[in-house]
Amino acid sequence: MDEKETWGKPVERRGRLTAVLALATLISAFGSSFQYGYNVAVINSPAPFMQQFYNTTYVERYGQPMEENFLTLLWSLSVSMYPLGGFFGSLMVAPLVNKLGRKGTLLFNNVFSIVPAVMMGVSEIAKSYEIVIVARFIVGICAGLSSNVVPMYLGELAPKNLRGALGIIPQLFITIGILCAQVLGIRHILGNSTGWTLMLGLTGIPAVLELLLLPFFPESPRYMLIQRGDEETAQRALQRLRGWEDVEEELSEMRLEDQSEKAEGRLSVLNLLSQPSLRWQLVSIVVMNMGQQLSGVNAIYYYADSIYASAGVKQNDIQYVTVGTGAVNVFMTIAAVFIVEASGRRLLLLIGFGICCTACVLLTAALSLQNSVFWMPYISIICVIIYVVGPIPYVVTTEMFRQSARPAAFMVAGSVHWLSNFTVGLVFPFMERGLGPYSFIIFSIICLLTLVYIWLVVPETKSKTFLEICQMFASRNNVEIKLGDGDLPLKEKGTPDS
What we know:
By secondary structure, the protein is mainly α. The chain has two domains: 16-264, Growth Hormone, Chain: A (Up-down Bundle), CATH 1.20.1250.20; 271-479, MFS general substrate transporter like domains (Growth Hormone, Chain: A), CATH 1.20.1250. It is built from 24 helices and four strands. It has helices spanning 19-41, 47-62, 68-91, 93-109, 111-121, 123-126, 129-157, 163-184, 196-201, 204-213, 221-227, 231-242, 248-261, 269-274, 279-294, 297-302, 304-310, 318-343, 345-369, 376-387, 394-399, 406-435, 439-457, 466-477, and strands at 5-6, 9-10, 479-481, 490-492. Strands 1-2 form a two-stranded antiparallel ribbon. A hairpin with a 2-residue loop joins strand 1 (5-6) and strand 2 (9-10). The longest helix has 30 residues, at 406-435. It is globular. 50% of the residues are buried.
């Protein structure tokens, strides 16, 4: 009896984590996703010394100290230029991944890391705070591309039974990047007046390693077959990734997806917005990405020190509490890698938004009562640590769209993600000044609304092919999916066959 059959029934071969797949995942995640996290947190700890440098430079130029409001504006720009660059990076996703491929885009993206790393490294010698602000924008472009392209690349490399776990690896490396920046930001390491330029410049090292190592690993087989029409290269890539010769089953599934998309062609963002068959998928990724960023989770990283100070943490202890927060986030993301395949994506999203919502309410209460109840500052710290265990929508963004729509979908998702991130980074200090602890109530409402949406609309996508997931959305989108006959694959319900 054939090894793929049991009592006459075909048994699906489950993909495994081969050395090639594991190394491609680690190199792309460390070279790209790690930098995203690192640059989120890298300017939090050395903020006083960087602002001192801004002021000293201004005095040397103009002979008088910088006005406080102007310094606040420059610092706000230093923080918010990063997510603004991320937004512009997201706009580049679709054209680059269609032209250069997933791996090719990641390699090209290293330019947006190495150049600003050098700029930030020499900013003090050049006596220019403008260089720091421009470099933050450029490295933001790098983060905007990597935050979208790495999940897309890994989602297309992975077998469907490992797609969820590997889809969380980029988020894991983001949290590791944040933790590394927090550790290096300790005062007696690099978070001081002499070490901050080196600390900012270290972001170029992962980029150089990725540039040297990633060329030895395969391009996305789905990209090679469906978008480039190169079945031979796709087959060789699959054989390396799976560790066996017989990859016909996966190739057949890709050919079927290719055939079902022939009539649609490659979708631009405008085409994507007008496709009835993708309406609810598009709404879902917008809601989830907006919900994740407007939950305020990145405000914790941008302004962690000021939040802990308002929570009553002693000045000397803040840096260590911040590192503890980063360590918990790494640990919880590692747990999510295993949970996502055991329990599914939908449950993980619901738990993530539920935790954020609850933590926001408790944090508001704790910050309000900390002057009257001596142990409340400890509750505030616990709430912040729990708060950063946020939801991870990247996995389902990859899974909800087929090959032709995926680049445009990531472009939309990334743009929403980074615009929301930029908004929070820019607005939160004013919210904190105006509303105090009650600013977190706004975040809790956003988390609750997103949770309700996911509960009502988003299906479970665990262990489903991209076509099966598309069929799951078909009834909600009021379309029918026809495969294998070469005709237009998606039809409005009620439309007679041609």
